[in-house]
Amino acid sequence: MRATIKRHSEADVEEQRQELKTITRLQEQCRALQIQGMREKSAENKATLALLRSNIRRGAQDWALAKKCDQWTVSRACGKDAPLRLAHCRSTVEVARERLRKYVFDRVNVHNVLIHLVRRRGQKLENMQLELAGLCGQPNASKEEQRLLQVIRQLENNIEKTVVKITTSQQVQLLYLDLLDYLKQVLVGYPTELDKLQNLVANYCSELSDMTVMSQDAMMITDEVKRNMRQGEASFIEERRARENRLNQQKKLIDKIRTKETSEKYRRVSPRPCPAPPPPLLSGRFTPCRGQGSPSSSSSPIRARRTWTILPTG
């Protein structure tokens, strides 16, 4: 039993091996065919690329040659007209031909119109020459005709003057309109300027109020200083007067003392020389020193010398 199972398994393995070999052989053949097809396609593509490159190169050469031919024909057609040549130098021959044909047609039409105008003006000139010849052949005008001609000339002059006035009035009107527009533009900017000026006025008013307060304070200070100065001056004058009064009183006392001493000197009879008068004193009252009698109480013929002391005045 085991031998039969082994035989069957070996046979199955051999069959599977054969199948795998055939599959791998077929895959290798397919791969070889694919590689060969890719090589053939790449060779064909290379050939087509070379053909296309040669065609493109040939087409570029033909295009450059055609472009040169177009430029040559356009420059030959334009001649010495440089602006026209520059305008048509980059266009094809067909476009340049159409443009040049249109340009030629326009010039021909303009030429025809100018010829028509010249003919009309020639006819008018001939008619005017005929009228002039007829007028020259007529006899001299009468006084009435001369007057009418003068009136006509005056009217023509008036018409010319009115035309000049009309033109000047139109110019003045245009100038007025320009000025009006300018003034409107200027008027647009006035509100901002007015706001700025109003702000400046407000600032100036605040500064002015501050200055007024400062000036009032300064005036009050000056008034106070003047009042103090007047009070000081009055007190100084009073002190000066009091000082002068004291000096006058002292002078009077000194004069009295001197007069007394001189009178006593002449009254006394003494072998001694007269003593020198005491020095002048500024203030105080004179009292005799203690231990010496008054001049009235002295009974001796030789009177003693008196000494005086200065006591401060309280």
From TrEMBL:
Q: Where is this region: Disordered?
A: 261-314
The Pro residues compositionally biased stretches are 272-281
Name of the featured protein? Coiled-coil domain-containing protein 183
